[in-house]
Amino acid sequence: MHRLPQPVFADRVLNSYSCEDHFYERDTEDHCWELLAAIVADSLSDHTIMQCGVNNSDRKDVKYPHLAGDIERWRREDPGLVSYEVVTLGKIVIDVGMPVTHCGARYNCRVIIYDGRVWLIRPKMALADDGNYREPRWFAAWRREREVEDFRLPQCVLDASAGGAPESVTFGDAVLKFDDTVVASETCEELFTPNAPHIRLALSGVEMFTNGSGSHHELRKLHKRLELIGSATSKAGGVYLYANQKGCDGNRLYFDGCSTVMVNGRLVAQGRQFSLCDVEVVTATVDLDDVSTMRGRMGAFQHSAAKTASYTSVALPRRLSMDPRHCTQWRTLISKPIEPRYHQPEEEIAYGPACWLWDYLRRSGASGFLLPLSGGADSASSAAIVGIMCAMVERAVNVDRDLDVIADITRIFHGGDEETAENDASHYSCGAKDITRSSIADRVLTTVYMGTVNSSTETKDRAAKIADEIGCYHMNVEIDSITGAFVALVKQLFPSKSPRFRAHGGSYRENIALQNIQARCRMVLAFFLAQLLPWIRDQGTFMLVMGSANVDEGLRGYMTKYDCSSADINPIGGISKMDLRKFLLWASTELRCSSLAAVEKATPTAELEPLGNGNVIAQTDEEDMGMTYEELGIYGTLRTIYRCGPVRMFNYLLHEWDHLAPWEVVGKVKHFFRSYAVNRHKMTTVTPSYHAEAYSPDDNRCGEDGGLASPGSPPPVCAFERQEDDRDENLTCTSSPPVRFRCRDVHFHHSHISTTDSTFVSFCTTRSGLGNLQKWTRWHGPPHLRTQRGSVNLRTLRIFDALVVNRSFRTIVAHPASPSQTACLLLLCTHSPKPSARSESARRTIVSSRQSHRAPSPEHLCAPASPLRF
C-alpha cells in the first residue's frame, strides 16, 4: 500500500508554462533555480497537511493554535476534512518541472526532490511541435535513451540542501528505485507519442509513473486524454499519476486541470476540470500489489520484460508502501474505481472561457469588460459566458469562501481603495456578507447596443432583455451621426460623388464601404467608452473591450477588419457557430435567461444594409457568405485539422455530400478557398481568442498560412482544375464528324452562353457517346443557351453526344427534347486565351473535318471572348 505522499506538479510549474521566448533569457532559468532552492529548504521544515475522510475525533487544531486560521479555511473549502497531521515535507517525494541548461543545451526537465536534496533531473525526450506548441524553438530533446550524465547543481540549491547532499546529481533517462518499488517520470507530450516511454519503462520493472503536463482545454478533448492515460496502464499495468496545469497562462490557452490517478487502467481519482481556485490537490491510496498481480498473469508481458534492457536507477533508501501489519484498516483505505466525469460540450463552452476570462480579468488589473451587444448569437454568447463567470464567482465567495477569489473580487469592486477592499474581504470570508451574481455582473460587465437606421427593433429589444436578465450595466447608443459625418466628408472632398447602398442603386464598392464604416465606428466607440466609463461611473481603473467573432467567421473572413471583432479579448473566437447555438439553449436554462433561447432562433444578420419594406431584415449572414454555418464548420475541420487543399477537400466532399451534384460541390469548394484567400490578411490582426477548437484560424498560434494570399488560382487550385481536365479527357468520344453549322459572336460567361445568331444546325453523331456526355454535364452543370428566341436550359434538352478534343477544346451537342424547341447547341471553348500549338492543330483538324461536309470557311468559327472555367 502506498504510504509516502508523492505530489506531482504540472509541466514547467516553477516558471509558468507559456514563457515562450522568455526561455531565451537567462533570468528565467535563474529564477527557477531560486524557487527550487526554496522548495528544497522547505522540505526540511515542519508543515501541516490535510487528511480527508479519516474518522479521527482528535481535534489537533487545539494542539496547534497558530494554525487555527488555516484549519478554519480548510474546513470551509472542504467539508470532508476531519483531521490534520503535522508532518515533515522530507517524507514527501516531490516532482516539479523547470528548464535546465546542460552542456550548452536547454532541456525541459523533471526535478525529483526528497528529504532536503535533489536526487534526479530527467530531461524531456519528446517535444510538442504541433498546433499551439513550439517546444523545439526553446528546448532540445534528450535523444539518448537509457543514458545518464552528472550535473552539478547551482550554489543556491546546494546552500539550501541538507548536510551531506552531493554537489552533482544524475541527469538523463533514469528511474527512481525505492526499497519496495520503482518510479519513473514522463512529461506531457511523451504520453501522446506513438512510442511512449511508459511501455519500455513498464517492461523494465517500473510500477509508478508520474506525468507533469501542460495540456490545454479543447472541446471534447478530455475523453482522449483519459483514454491515453488508461491505455498507458491497462496494457502493462501500473499506477499513473497525472498532474495538469490549471488556469490561463497569460495567453490564448486555458489549462483545465483535471489531474487524475489511474491504476491498471481504472480511474481512482479525478480533479475538477473547471474551477476558480488556483491550487487543487488530488489524492488516492493505491495497492502496489495490484500491479504485480496483473503483470504476473500476463504471459506476453512476462516474455517481453525478460528481454528488455534495464534503466540506470537512482537508489532512494526509503519505502513508499506501509506494512499491512501496522495498519489494520489498510484495505478499507484503498481508493475504489470511479467513473470518469465528463462535461457536455455546452458546459465546456460555458465553464472553460468563463474561467479564462476570470484569470484574464484579475491578473490584468482591469475592473471589468465592455461588450458591444448587437442582440445576435455571437455577442449574446459572450455576454452569457460572463454571466456564467459571475455565477462561479458567487459560488466561490458564498459557498467555498475561497480567500483568493474574495481578495480579487473586492479589488475589482473597490479599485485602489485598499482599506475598503480589506473590510469587504473580511466580511465575505467570515460569511457575514454574501454577494450575488447580478451585483457582480453590474460591476464587471457593461454592454452597449450601437444602433443605426439599418438596425431593427427586434435586435435592440433582445439586447436590452439579455442585459437585464444577466444583470449587467447596459447602454443604447445611436451612431448615425458618426457614420453620417464620414459620408458627408466624402461628399465634401468629391462633390460629384455620393456613395449609396446597393438597395438604393449603389455599386458593390459603395455598398461594402458604407457597411464597413458602420462596423469600424462601433470598434472606435467601444474603446473610447471602455476608457471613460470607469471615470464616469467612478468604478475601477480601466475596462477590457470584449470581441464576439466565432471561429467559423474568422476562418471564412466574414468580418470587417478593425470592427467589433477587433478587441482586447474574445471568449468565443475558437468556438463554432453550431456549438454556440447549442450553448445558448443550455445557458437559457442554466442562467434562467429566456432571451438567449430567442436569440438562438433568430436569423443571423449583420444589419449593415438598409431594411426592407415594413422594416424587415433584408440581409442575412449565410446569404452574404454564400454558405451555411454548418458547411463552414466542415470546411474548417477539413482545412485546418485534416490539412485539405482544394483537390483533397473536393474528393472528400464528393462522397460526403452525395445529395449534391459534383459540379455543385466544385462550386462550393472554389468559393470557400477564394473567400479564404481574399480574407486571409484579417487573421494577422485577429483578437486574442480563447482556444477551444483545433481548427482555430488564429495565425499567431495554430495556423501559419501567411497574411497575403492571391484570390485567383494559386497552385492548389490550378492542380484542382487540371484534375477536372483529366476527368474531361477521359470522356473523349471520336464518333462521326460534324455536319454544317453556323455560329457567330459566341460569348461565354460562367455557366451562360449568349449569341447574336439564332440558327444552330444539328451535329450528326452516333449514340455511343451518350453516357459520356451525361457524365460530363454531371460534373459541370447545365449551362443556359441565350438566343434571340429566348433562353433554353440544357436540363430540358435530351443530351445526344459529345466530342472532346485534347485538353483545350470541348465540343458538346444536344438535340431538343421536343420539335418545338430550337435546334441544337454547339460549344467550342478553350482554357487559355492563347491556344497552344497542339490546340491549333486540333482546331485545324476539326475545321478540316467540317469542310469535307461543306462546312463554312474557318473565319466563321469564332473563339470565345474569354476563357471558360468550370
Describe the structure.
The C terminus is likely disordered. The chain starts with 25 loop residues before the first helix and ends in a 19-residue tail after the last helix. A seven-stranded mixed beta sheet has the order 15-14-11-10-9-8-16, with helices on one face. Strands 3-4-5-7-6 form a five-stranded mixed beta sheet. A four-stranded parallel beta sheet has the order 19-18-17-20, with helices on both faces. α9 packs across α18 and α11 runs antiparallel to α12. The chain is globular and about 90 Å long. The protein is built from 26 helices and 27 strands. The longest helix has 30 residues. β4 and β5 form a beta hairpin. The protein is an alpha/beta fold. Helices cover 37% and strands 17% of the residues.
Distinctive features:
870 residues; disordered C terminus; 7-stranded mixed beta sheet
Span between N and C termini? 71 Å
| Low-pLDDT ranges | 48-64, 727-776, 782-870
What portion of residues is helical?
A: 25-40%
**Sheet with the most strands, sense and barrel status:** 7 strands, mixed
Q: How many H/I helices?
A: 26
Give the overall form: globular
Task: Output mean pLDDT.
Answer: 77
Per DSSP E runs of 2 or more residues, the count of β-strands stands at 27
**Radius of gyration from the CA trace?**
35 Å
Strand order of the largest sheet: 15-14-11-10-9-8-16
